[in-house]
Design a protein that fits this description.
Strand order of the largest sheet: 3-2-1-4-5-6-9
Oligomer: single chain
Distance between the termini: 39 Å
Strand content: 5-15%
Mean pLDDT: 93
Length: 283
């Protein structure tokens, strides 16, 4: 049976992705932080589903859970769904700003650790869930990646957008690198300018937005969509035969290829993200 790994799969968007992939006949492993939520997710999804507990903001825990996944054999689908966005700044146990750690670094480490299992499962897929928060990252000025954090005030959506753009740069690098190995690398923005009703979203306050965008808070809240209704593009990227071998595509909320977020990537950003990622992970 083909095997899928879904991070952040115990609630919200990740849970519904995992449920849909199980319906498609895949054996699904959901990775999450909370054991009770994990047990409930396994109960609801049913069938060939299991839970692995890990706090994916901790790079050490990422490595440990990756070892458990690899021990079970080939991986056919990896959905890097886990992420986070907060109104106030947080740090991980590694002393790294949490938005950059969870939305970029943890995914880099997990994906790298699973590459041999993905090669063994080829044709296989890596699906990175991205976000239009990228469009808010430049509101207060040009982006730099000289360090994990950019100078200036902390606004959670812009911080997350900067981290998501860093990971989109990594996604595009992997797409080029892994195509010959039979691993299709895709990214999906499931929401566009909308928001989904997830546990993380329930914690947010207007302060998450840069001041210039706070007038959008009420429209965002009014347009909140159920998490179950925004996963079609992610599921398609994971299993639709029409995307086989089309590495580097970014799918929009309608599940169709879109250039919108790729327009924020420049060669300079990609180069500086590579250097910063290597430096932080080597420290």
């Amino acid at each position: 049976m083909r095997r899928a790994i879904v991070t952040g799969g115990t609630s919200g968007i990740g849970f519904h992705v995992a449920s849909r992939l199980r319906e498609q006949g895949l054996a699904v492993t959901v990775v999450g932080r909370d054991a009770d939520h994990g047990a409930e997710a396994v109960r609801q999804i049913g069938g060939e589903t299991r839970f692995l507990q890990a706090d994916l903001s901790s790079l050490r825990e990422v490595e440990k859970v990756a070892g458990r996944i690899v021990a079970d054999g080939p991986v056919h689908v990896l959905v890097n769904n886990v992420g986070g966005m907060w109104s106030t700044r947080r740090e991980t146990v590694d002393g790294i700003e949490a938005g950059f750690a969870l939305n970029h670094l943890s995914r880099v480490v997990l994906t790298a650790a699973l590459l041999d299992a993905l090669r063994a499962g080829a044709p296989s897929r890596i699906v990175d869930v991205t976000s239009s928060s990228i469009t808010t990252a430049t509101v207060d000025g040009p982006l730099t990646y000289d360090d994990v954090e950019q100078d200036g005030d902390y606004y959670g959506m812009a911080v997350t957008g900067r981290a998501k753009l860093a990971h989109l740069a990594h996604n595009q690098d992997l797409a080029r690198e892994l195509a010959p190995a039979g691993i299709t690398v895709l990214a999906v923005d499931p929401l566009g300018p909308a928001a989904a009703a997830t546990p993380n979203a329930a914690e947010m306050t207007p302060e998450i937005l840069p001041p210039a965008l706070r007038h959008l808070w009420d429209p965002i809240q009014d347009g909140m969509r159920p998490a179950s209704g925004v996963v079609d593009g992610i599921v398609a990227a994971a299993v639709d035969p029409s995307f086989e071998g089309r590495s580097g595509l970014v799918l929009g909320p309608d599940g169709e290829p879109s250039e919108d977020l790729l327009g924020f990537l420049t060669p300079e950003i990609s180069t500086s993200v590579r250097a910063l990622t290597r430096r932080v992970l080597a420290s």
